[in-house]
Structures are given as C-alpha cells and as structure tokens.
Specification:
Elements (H helix, E strand, L loop, with lengths): L1 E3 L5 E7 L4 H12 L6 E11 L1 H13 L4 E6 L1 H9 L2 H4 L1 E4 L2 E2 L6 E5 L3 E5 L4 E6 L5 H16 L7 E7 L2 E7 L6 H7 L4 H17 L10 H8 L9 H11 L7 E3 L8 E4 L2 E4 L6 E3 L2 H17 L1 H8 L3 H16 L3 H22 L5 H5 L1 H13 L3 H9 L1
Helix pairs in contact: 1-2, 7-12, 10-11, 10-12, 10-13, 13-15
C-alpha cells in the first residue's frame, strides 16, 4: 500500500477505505519517519480513498513538521480531496499531462534544460532530470505572479511530464532571443543594447509589494547552513553577517538577466526564464549580469556562448555597452566598478554552492579555497561597503 522510493517520495496504491485505513496509518507514519520536514505522497496508483483514509492523511499532516503534498492524483481522486476540503489542508495536485518532444524543433538550450517548439502557438521548456518538480512548479508560479505585477514576461501554461523529465508549456513567441538577434543583426546592436538596459532598469525600478516574491536575503540566509560541510562555524557566521549588509530593497531581481533569457516580441523585450526571481537590492542582479556578460565569457566561453546565443567576444562587447549605458560611467570608471562587481560575484558563487546543484557541490572545496578564503575573507571590509552602498 505504501512504498518509499529512492528519492524519498512515498508511493500510495490501491483502494483505501475503512477496511485497510488502520494498516495505511501504520505504514504511512512509519515510512514518513526520517524524511525531513516536507513529505510528498505520490498518488498515481491510488484508485480510491474514503473518509477513513482521509483521516489518516490528517494525522500525517499534524505529525509532519512541514508541508504534506499529494501529487499525481487522478481526476476522480482529486475530486474527493477537493469536495471534502482537503485541498485546503494539503498541497494536492492532479496527475501531470504527458507529452513527447520527438521530432520537435529545438529553439533554445540553457543550463537547466532545452526549449522545443510544440506547435505554432506553444513551446515547452523541458528541464534536466536533476531539476525537481517543486522547483519547476515554482518557476511557473513566478512567471504567473510576475505577469500579474506588470513584468514583461512570457505566459506560462501547465507543468507537464516528458519522459523522465518535467517541463513547462509556454506561449509561442513568434520571434527570436535577444542574443540571437544581436548576433544576426550587428548593425542594430546599439538599439538592442538600449532595449536591454531599459528592461533591466524597468525591473530594478519596479516596486513590488512585500511578500510577492521572497526577499533575496532570506534565500541567501537559507543557503548558508548547507555550506557547513566545507566551512568552519566562523566562516558561516561571516557569510550571514555579509548577507545582512544588503539593503532591504523592494526591486525585482531576475537573477539570470542575460540576452539568451529574453525574447523580442513585436519590438518589445519579454522575459522567458524566471527560475530565481526575488526581491531586494539591485546590486545582486547587476553582479549576475557581470557574471554572464563580462566574467564567464573570459573564464568559460563555450558554456556561456550556448546560453546567451552569441560568440564570447560579442558577449563581452555587449556587456561593456550595457554597463556604460546603465551606469553612465566611462571605461576608466568602469574598471573600478568591475572590481566591485567581481567581489560581489565571488560572494555570489560561494553562496550558489548552498543552492545544492550537483556541479556546484562537486566544486565546493575548490570554491571555498579559491573564492571564500582567497577573495571574500581578505576583502571583507571592502565587500561590506559595496553591499551596504
């Protein structure tokens, strides 16, 4: 009746009624031990559940330290949860629609997945198998919330299953990415950079109501304890104190604002990638743009070329143009400004390890030695001043 999968999800199957509810309670509460605060139940093979079975879920909810989610319910089982009010008590979701991208045209590729053209009206972003369903559903909600708040972004439809991966279906924009447009129309580069800067300023100057998105400081503080495997208690305390230097701004922070994540639609720029949207101080977003447009093309050109959609030397050129126009600084002034952003970028990379991606975890020891202990800590006071101001 209850089976624990390798990824910690509890699979529930069969019919649950008064005859076997007690057995379900024993198996379910036993299997839930040691899973952590949040518990996910996969109901793909659950055929029916009576009120006796629902009360077992209620006991699990009371015993759990975090959220209880029930995923992959059939329409019939979902209706039982819904009509009894349990969709308000638990995070209940219907079984995902399954699609195939066999034969579909690839129109974009990035670090998290690949974008396919489904038909004339829709595209699907299929994430890599390592990207969990919760993160994907969060991105869809981010896109919907951003659209409601007047952010120029693509319209998101449903989350779907695609083989061993998950994806989000979006509206099909009859245009190209800003990166490809820059590469294919170099004579219009100044015009495109002006639009790029205008979009960044629109996001950074947009005042979002508190609670609409998570504050960047909250996100970063949550990452610090996950670094305990590689950092001393004193280093963790230092990182937390540096995060506290960030002002409590209410600007929208995209987190990955490069031309490969922007489309041109009827002459206007539209965001197509919203996985890490937060609120806070815009310096964090500017450090991300510096990472993608100035630093990464010099350090790992092949990877960033694939994401942004143009050659590394062109990415760097666009990056310089962006910061000249955004800041109003000349090249000499930008040299000093880049040194500041490079320091924030180093701090950013240290904290990215706490986000838990496989690649960052593998590189964690080197990142702590080469960035935390060799860059961030020796320049602690300068970094505090930059973050504060």
């Amino acid at each position: 009746m209850v089976e624990k999968s390798n990824d910690g999800i509890l699979k529930i199957s069969g019919r649950i009624d008064s005859n076997n509810a007690a057995q379900l309670e024993k198996e379910l509460l036993g299997a839930a031990e040691g899973l952590g605060a949040d518990i996910t139940l996969d109901a793909a093979e659950l055929q029916y559940i009576s009120s006796a079975g629902l009360r077992v879920f209620l006991k699990l909810k009371k015993a759990a330290a975090g959220e209880v989610s029930v995923i992959n319910t059939s329409p019939e089982v979902y209706d039982i949860f819904d009509v009894t009010g349990f969709t308000s008590l638990l995070n209940v979701s219907k079984r995902l629609r399954e699609i195939s991208v066999d034969g579909c045209e690839v129109i974009g590729q990035g670090g998290n997945g690949t974008v396919y053209r489904l038909d004339d009206d829709k595209i699907v972003k299929v994430y890599r198998p390592v990207v969990g369903l919760a993160a994907i559903e969060k991105e869809r909600e981010f896109a919907k919330t951003a659209l409601i708040n007047g952010v120029p972004c693509v319209i998101a439809y449903d989350v779907v299953k695609c083989g061993d991966s998950y994806g989000i279906v979006f509206e099909m924009l009859r245009s190209d990415t800003l990166g490809h447009a820059m590469k294919n129309n170099p004579e219009k580069l100044d015009e495109y950079v002006e639009k790029y800067v205008a979009l960044a300023k629109e996001l950074h100057n947009k005042k979002i109501a508190a609670g609409t998105f998570t504050n960047i400081k909250t996100v970063l503080h949550e990452r610090v304890p996950r670094l305990a495997r590689w950092c001393t208690p004193g280093e963790l305390e230092l990182l937390d104190s540096l995060i506290d230097e960030l002002p409590d701004g209410d600007s929208l922070i995209h987190g990955d604002l490069h031309p490969g994540n922007i489309m041109i639609q009827d002459g206007e720029l539209v965001l197509i990638d919203m996985p890490e949207v937060t609120m806070g101080a815009k310096i964090w977003d500017l450090a991300g743009i510096y990472r993608d447009m100035i630093s990464a093309p010099q350090r790992s050109p092949e990877a960033i070329e694939l994401s942004v959609g143009m050659p590394a030397d062109m990415i760097i050129d666009v990056g310089h143009r962006f910061f000249r126009l955004y800041t109003g600084m000349n090249d000499e002034q930008l040299e000093g400004y880049y040194k500041q952003l490079d320091l924030v970028f180093a701090f950013n990379v240290v904290l990215i390890v706490g986000a838990g991606s496989k690649r960052s975890t593998e590189m964690a020891p080197a990142i702590m030695d080469n960035l935390l202990r060799s860059v961030v800590i020796p320049n602690e006071q300068a970094l505090r001043h930059i973050l504060r101001s």
